[in-house]
Amino acid sequence: MVLSRLDVPATCLAALLCLIVVAPAAAQEPPAGTATEASPAPQANERHHALSLVGEPKYPAGFDHFDWVNPDAPKGGTLRGFAEGSFDSLNPFTVKGDPAGGLGLIYDSLMTGSPDEPSSEYGLIAEWVSYPPDFSSVTFGINPKARFQDGSPITPEDVVFSFEAQKKAHPRAAFYYKNVVKAEKTGDNEVTFTFDVKGNRELPQIVGQLMIVPKKFWEGTGPDGQPRDITKTSMEIPVGSGVYRIKSFDAGRSITYERVKDYWAKDLPIAKGQWNFDEFKLTYFLDRTPAFEEFKSGKLDYWMESTASNWATGYGFSGIDKGWVKKEAIPVKRVAPMQAFVFNQRRKQFQDPRVRRAFALAFNFEEANKKLFYNSYVRVGSYFDNSELAAKGLPQGRELEILNEVKDEVPAEVFTTEWNNPVNNTPDDFRNHMREASKLLNEAGWTLQEVVLDDGSCGTFCSIMRTVGLSSAPKANLLRNAQGQTLDAEFLLQSPDFQKIVLPYVQDLQKLGIKASIRMVDGAQYKRREDSRDYDIIVDNFAQSESPGNEQRDFWGSAAADRDGSRNTAGIKNPAVDKLIDKVVFAKDRDELLAATHALDRVLLWNFYVVPQWHYPFERIAYWDVFGRPAKLPSQTSALSQVWWFDADKQKALAAARRQ
Question: Are 547 and 1 in contact (CB under 8 A)?
Fold first, then answer.
């Protein structure tokens, strides 16, 4: 999967400005018998202005600008948004600390993605890219005009340093670039990266995502006279290469970026009509509620809504009533992410698939959608939903051939039954599913037994009353296994909005005898517990692209299961899944990729590693009516921060109306 600085977590600035520093996992050797060359094979040393894993790039060499921008968009103004939580570092490359949101804006990469074309990249710092037919290396030609923000040229030495330093600074980067074994200067403005595998068509684009930092800055000394260290947190404003630089910040509370007026790439086709705001100011809030109040008062310019109930009922304020604030659901055409309750299989109670399946049967999505979401959500039914990558029907053709190679290692239902979520159209449906769940739990060795509950609120008087027989401790029927252990399931959450969603699910699990509970923690504690795998169940989100690849190793691969901080939060260690990931990574063409992805999707689903939640094929956005935007928006996102602009006439009209 090819990621850009716009592929961001929804919790940071409503998915507009946050930075993904590193993407998913690296490739391994292809399995025996796997074809390793692309079809048709490219000519050796052919120079490309752009790369795509899905057909050809939309725009030819020498194009003028993307068709989803206004190349004459006016520049100016300060865009005010919010970020949730806090920050203690301006260095996004280290595993340490909490970096500020939006830091991706200050760095350019060798190539840049298009939010209108899944899995395409166009040259940015690199004006061309080439690779041999066996995909054993990639060479980038650096644009001689490329400059850092201090005016110094971007050199091959900076590119090599960026690669080596980022691998050293973050274990996920080291894992991501595991198969890139060497970076070296091979010409005055050329850098070549050598791979230890052949046939991985995605690796050239993965390297193209590398953000470039100035070697001279990071090897120098800071204002305190100490050597800078990219592996450590830092609150020193760094020198970047991107369209914005850091203007000012208040540690943990706010950060302001200013547009670089003499940005070296501003007239390139891939930059025209974009990044039109002179400044971005991000104000941090520990909770979304006070941030939303700031938006309603006009102190924030836009709001990306993530809650269906708030979208339906929370916009009855004067700005909406008077027409000053616009409320819009903008359609997006992208693969639906697998958002789900994720079982930590490092915990023994979740290692039996019958237990996991029972949890899936006990989740009443239809009731939640009706009572909490105003029937606005669609249930996620695939790890690649809303796309041709999703498995449907029964396996056939090339997919069936691939699955037959792991037939003895996957559930039998993979071949005989189409996977579907349980559907609860009536109360009887849910009762039947709960009975089925209870049966599965019993088959897995969990039986209901009366248990005396530990009542921590019982004080001295309460204890005396129980001693003399005038009261008794509370009891409950809980599931126990042969060792006398209860079936514990603590949902670790950081969002108060999710608590009201999870609570009915917890209550239904308790009816089965499961000792289910909710634990609310702050963002920093949540990150620590997630990274160290200290949880039973969490809510996670696995974003996919139209061209899945190396990131699948980080999501589901055995090598990532025991690595703290990986995306394999479920702890999946399944040899069959590893083999199917190989098929995806080393697919020789689109048809092979589709077949391999269908097989992987089907096996993941039938193992019940997660309880799928929902998706919404729109971006819900509310904004003060001061913006202009292109007639056509990119298909993958509303791209407010990237392609919208302030309309001077609308700003004047709103200001006049609010004065009256």
Answer: yes
Alpha-carbon 642 to chain mean position: 19
Q: Which two tokens stand for residue 375?
A: 């029937």
Q: pLDDT for 377-417, tens place per residue?
A: 999 999 999 999 999 999 999 999 999 999 999 999 999 99
Measure the CA–CA gap between 572 and 533, rounded to whole angstroms. Answer: 13
Burial category of 226 from C-beta neighbours within 10 Å (exposed 0-12, middle 13-18, buried 19 and up): exposed
SS3 annotation, 231-262: CCCCCCCCCCCCCEEEEEEECCCEEEEEECCC
Cα–Cα distances (Å) from 484 to 171, 235, 448, 479, in that order, read 39, 52, 11, 9
Q: Give, to the nearest 10 degrees, the angle between helix 353-361 and helix 427-443.
A: 160
- Tokens at residue 228, please? 């800078």
CA angle 546, 547, 553 (to 5 degrees): 125
> What is the 3 state secondary structure string of 505-542?
HHHHHHHCCCEEEEEECCHHHHHHHHHCCCCCEEEEEE
Domains, the chain = 13-329+618-659 (3.40.190.10), 338-446+485-615 (3.10.105.10), 449-480 (no CATH)
| 566-607 pLDDT tens trace | 899 999 999 999 999 999 999 988 999 999 999 999 999 999
Instruction: Give Cβ neighbours of residue 398 (< 8 Å, ≥ 6 apart).
Output: 591, 592, 595
- Where b means 16+ CB within 10 Å and e means fewer, 290-328 reads ebbeebbeeebbbbbbbbbebbeeebeeebeeeebbeee
Answering whether pTM is above 0.90, one says: no
